[in-house]
Amino acid sequence: MQKESESFQHSSAPIFSSARFDEDSIIVYPLLSIVTAGLYFSGYKYFALIPALILVMIFTIEVSERVILVPLKKVRVLGNKCVVMKRVSYGEKGVVKIIDNTGLPQWELWSAQSSYDFEEGSIAKVKEVDGLFLQIEPL
Questions:
Q1: What is the pTM of this model?
Q2: 3-class SS at 125?
Q3: Which residues are CB-contacts of 9 (< 8 A; sequence separation ≥ 6)?
Q4: In 42-133, which residue ranges form alpha helices assigned H by DSSP?
Q5: Total of domains in the chain
Q6: In the beta sheet, which residues pair with residue 136?
Q7: Looking at 30, 45, 69, which one is the last position of a domain?
Q8: Are 116 and 90 in contact (CB under 8 A)?
Q9: What stretches of the chain show up as alpha helix (H) in DSSP?
Q10: Is the domain of 96 the same as that of 65?
Q11: Has residue 116 been placed in a domain?
């Protein structure tokens, strides 16, 4: 039981983080603030409370959400087959997708280089990982 709990250790996201406040917040908060200020300085002080309360309510909801950060699974790529998505040749880097155990390409795109020529759609084998690039070779 203890091994199971150790393998599922997750960390919670900080209150002010991009995991909690996404790109919509960049638009919504300033927009509601501008509407609130515009209504207030136009003389509609009581109507300015509406967007101000909405702003506080959205902020409170986003802060109170429980955001759990789960570490990504490590992908084993060395020795796996891959499908070429963008042409790879000597001196020309390309793009590949790793083929998993079920025979389907994974969603991640990897940069690849090789001393051999590979056209789009061809299958290759991952020879080694060189920094951010996969070295591929024919099967």
A1: 0.48
A2: strand
A3: none
A4: 49-64
A5: 2
A6: 126
A7: 69
A8: yes
A9: 2-7, 23-41, 49-64
A10: no
A11: yes
